[in-house]
Amino acid sequence: MNVREWALPVYTLLVELAAGALLAIWLIRAFSRPRFGPEETDRLTVSPLLVIFSTILVAIIGSHFHLSKPALSFLSVLNFRSSWLSREVVFTALFFLLVGWLVYLLLGRRGSRWMDGLGWGTILVGFGTVYCMGQIYLLPSQEAWNHPLTVASFFGSAMLLGTMATSSLLTLDLKFTEIRGPSISTARLEIVRRALGPLALAAVLAAGLTLSIDLAKIAHLQEGSPAAQTSLSLWLGLYQPLVWVRVGLLCAGAGWLALAVYRMQRTGRPVLDLIAPAYLACLLVMIAEILGRFLFYAAHVRAGI
Amino acid sequence: MVFIYFLIGLSFGFLGLAAYLRSRQEGEWALQKHLPGLAAFGLAAALNGWVEMFLASGTPVEYMEILKILRMLLQPLSGLLLLRFGWGILRSFSPLPAWAVFIPGALIVPIAFAISYAVTTFITPSPLDIPIDIWSRYLLYLPGSMMAGFGFIHQARVQRKAGFPDVSTLLFGAGLGFLVEAFVVGLVVPAAPYSPASYYNYDRVLHNAFSGEIAPSTTPFGLMGWLDYQSVLMATGLPIQFWRLLSAVAVTSFVVKGLDVFDAIRKRQLLALQAERDHAQQLAFNSLVAARQSAENWTEVLVHISRRIAELDDVGEVLLYLVENARQLLHSDFIGLAIYNKSANCLELKYYATAEQTEAVRQAEQVETPLIVRAFQTIQPYRTGEAEPPELLENLCLLPGRVAGAAAVVPICLDITPIGALWMARCERSPYSETDLIWLECLADQVMIAINHGLMTSQLQSLSITEERARIARDMHDGLAQVLGYLNLQVQTLTALLQQGKKESLQKELNEMRQAIQTAHADVRENILSLRTTLDAEKGLVSALEEYIEEFGIQTGVDIDLYYEVEGELNLASIAEVQFICILQESLTNIRKHARARHVLVTIAKEVQAGEEYVYLCIEDDGVGFSMAETHTESKRRFGLKTMRERAQSVHGDLAIESTPEKGTVIECRIPCLKQVRMRYRSPISQGEAPFLQSGPEGVGLP
Fold first, then answer.
1. Per DSSP, what are the bridge partners of residue B612?
2. Cα–Cα distance for residue pair B244/B265, rounded to 1 Å
3. What number of C-beta contacts closer than 8 Å exist between A and B?
4. Is the separation of the CB atoms in A13 and A289 below 8 Å?
């Protein structure tokens, strides 16, 4: 893979991360609001939303390195009715704008009445983007990709990266609040403490789902055409070390977060102690997902001309 | 090349050893706790260098694989240790802004992609040690060296601000050394079939993406073409190992020299601490001396005031002295003393002191300053603080055109009744301390005592006048009235004798009458003389004595001589002077009445007994004398002698009488003088000397 091809994992993974993280943060917000009130949950949402917004921006910039004529990328929207790529571009732009709007509303403390509905709508658009990017790869000429498992794996990545990134973001934001002072509110600490358990559980489930999809894909390739067989041989031959590294990092990352959260809940250690484990676990899972996406692109074999 | 690798290993080994040895010493420098990490990096890098040396020296093949494995372990290990050291030293930056928390968060995506990319390169056909070498440099050495470089540069700034420019220079050099190390060790890597190391056959999609043109694929990609060993050799004519040696030597020499600075810093800190301690000691000593000086001054002034009060000095003089000295002792520009005038129902300024003058106010001047009136009414002392409203400080410093910056006021109370107020003010905006207020309260007590004594003195004078009148009345009753009564009887007797014609008896009675009249006349004249002999400050005791004795000789016809053997003043307390005169008068009266002496000798001299100075008075006559045993039975004489003895004892003196019938009488009296220091008293403030150095511990005693 050269730089042009590396632009694809950058874009797809970052958008998936953004969509997954937005879903996670909006669920936390929805569940915390009745107990802790709108002000505290709004404050909790600001920093993660800013990061999600920046992530989509980086993804969009990164995606342009894949294009032959980046300056003309906007023309792709003209084929919206017929092309998944056009739809992906439109949805990505819409996702970016909607997240930007959410950030604007949150920072300006405007229209909290709107916020919930707008947030859920944005999440739908985000996952629509993921769906579109998955549909792009359902090409009959690409046996390794042409299966609903591809779309499922993209959604799995969104779930996994979203939960891991949200865990890390929430703890980093706690540290930020502590440094900025004067102190972290008890409500904020309680929200994060309560959220980390479900997040870790969701991360473990998403990691299991991702690995299951990989296994299902291997099974699918085994029964496929010669092109699919070739792809499988690349997976289990040349790229086998990377496959194992990916599996190892995925298990290690999700497991580490789950273990750290479990120990925190059990021993009553401060939530701030989770900054390093959450960050490193997120890094490991992100590397695993990048390697997975590398394998996804590197192992495809074109069937026919 | 072997020699270069040896020197690289030696250089890093020296760095590691120096850092290790220095880390065992105690210190408070910010780098101190990171020295073990630096030592570990230095030793690992040294081992790596020497492994490279053996690999380059043509080691037998059977050892070659072992050495390669060692290098594959040591290279990332040393890089990891450098990264840890760099991260540690970078974290000593403080305080970081709050948003810096998100830097790792922002870097997580690039880091993840870089690591992922590095992992994917391990499946290329190149030997395993190549990607290990390359990614150790890119992922470990490069960030580690950069962080260490910036960390040292930051420390250099810290040391410069702390006033150690030489240390700062060395640390700055070490920082630059690490940045050079970041370039030559972290960025220049061996050739490999993938970017960014030296993958020349790479299409330049990034560069031409906006134009849509594809550049020739053999063109090196940006700067990356320069950053392999071959490019460095071609560009500089020297292998990259040589430049690495130079950077290693630079880093080692600067860091090791910088580490030597630990001692210099410690010595300087020690010297600074010693200087600070000496300075603090000097300050403490100075303040101690000043406090003692101030306390002695206060003691001296208060004792002097008390003495003057005890000696019944004029109250006005005492209060003037008090305000003048208080102003100097309390470092004030103004001191005022106001007394409550009951009839006018207001406070009136009576005495004040400024730097220019101290005087008693002759015309009543009403004091209406709120601060003073409030302290007087509430009977509560008050001192102004730093943030006092200006209107509260008005009319406190009664100097034309000057406004008080700080003031303190205390009420003057007689028992629980306020009778006035004493206040001080200074133009400088420097509030008085609680101690100043306490001293002012002491002075207010002295004012109250002085006034009280003044009142008591007036009462005593009234009492003395009453007593004196009673005494004159008694004397007239015992003397003149008796004589007049006697004369009345004698006149009746004379009338009867005249009618009877008894001339002889008449003559005899007339003689007795003449005698009685003469006696009465002598008594009256002596009483008049005694009453006339008064002590006043202008005439002095000696003149009064001389006048009295001369007059006494003239009146009584007794030959009386005075031997005055004292140089200068007698130095007696006022009350002692009164008793002294009374004893002399009583003695001479006795001589006139009873002794029938022709010659009297009065001696006044000074004696020193057991270190104490006394005034010695001796009255010696050549009269009839008396038996000392008779005085026990003769009540009138006994009473007179007893009175004289009591007078002497009342002023801590003694009196002795020696008499033999027909051989005259000697009366000796000794009265103690005042202490010398009391007479030599000088104002402690105006003289500017410590009184305790002059007077000694007995200086404050009263006779």
1. B609
2. 31
3. 83
4. yes
ipTM over the 0.90 cut-off: no
What single-letter DSSP state applies at residue B32? G
Give the number of other CB atoms < 10 A from CB of residue A104.
Answer: 12
Q: Which residues of B touch A (CB under 8 A)?
A: 96, 98-99, 101-102, 104-106, 108-109, 111-113, 115-117, 119-120, 122-123, 195, 202-203, 205-206, 209-210, 212
Q: Average pLDDT, stretch B676-695?
A: 38
Interchain contact, B122 vs A241, CB within 8 Å: yes
pLDDT at B703: 27
Q: Mark B464-485 as b/e (b = at least 16 C-beta within 10 Å).
A: eeeeeeeeeeebbeebeeebee
pLDDT confidence tier of residue A84, bands split at 50, 70 and 90: confident
Using alpha carbons, select from B42, B29, B28 the residue that is nearest to residue B256.
Answer: B42
> Is residue B696 scored above 80 in pLDDT?
no
Which residue would you say has higher pLDDT here, B522 or B617? B617
Verify whether the Cβ–Cβ distance A287 to B195 is below 8 Å.
Answer: no
| pLDDT at residue B572, as a whole number | 83
Tokens read off for B208? 């031409």
pTM over cut 0.80? no
Structure-block tokens of residue A8: 């694809």
Is the CB of B108 less than 8 angstroms away from the CB of A176?
Answer: no
b/e B625-636 (16+ beta carbons within 10 angstroms → b): bbeeeebeeeee
3-state DSSP helix/strand/coil % of chain A, to nearest 5: 85, 0, 15
With contact defined as beta carbons under 8 Å apart, do B479 and B520 qualify?
A: yes
Segment of A1-10, A114-123, A201-210, B312-321 carrying the highest mean pLDDT: A201-210
**Does the pLDDT at position B583 exceed 80?**
yes
Closest CA to B493 of B474, B508, B481, B515: B508
Give contacts of A57 with chain B, Cβ < 8 Å.
none
Residues 6 or more apart in contact with residue A31 via CB below 8 angstroms: none
pLDDT band at A4 (very low <50, low <70, confident <90, very high): low
Residue B253 pLDDT more than 50?
A: yes
Compute the average pLDDT of residues B239-260.
Answer: 87
Which of B98, B106, B112 shows the shortest C-beta gap to A180?
B98
A6–B117: do the CB atoms touch at under 8 Å? yes
Most confidently modeled range among A276-285, B153-162, B286-295, B571-580: A276-285
Place of tokens 């920046």: A54
DSSP B284-308: HHHHHHHHHHHHHHHHHHHHHHHHH
CA separation for the pair B83, B174 (Å, rounded): 16
Tell which residue, B404, B407, B435, B400, has the closest CA to residue B422. B407
Residue of B104, B116, B117 with shortest CB distance to A279: B104
State pLDDT tens for residues B107-135. Answer: 888 889 888 888 887 877 677 888 888 88
Give the closest of A2, A239, A282 to B203, CB-based: A2
Cα–Cα dist B478/B462, whole Å? 24
Q: Is the pLDDT of residue A265 over 50?
A: yes
Does B270 or A129 have the greater pLDDT score?
A: A129
Q: What is the mean pLDDT of residues A280-300?
A: 89
Which of A16, A64, A75, A283 would best serve as a mutation to test chain B binding (most B beta carbons within 10 A)?
A: A283
Q: Judge contact between B376 and B365, C-beta under 8 A.
A: no
Residue B620 has a pLDDT of 93
Contacts of B102 in chain A (CB under 8 A): 47, 51, 172, 176
Q: A15 CA to chain B: closest CA distance, Å? A: 12
Report the distance separating Cα B113 and Cα B138, nearest Å: 13
Q: Give me the amino acid identity at A120.
A: W
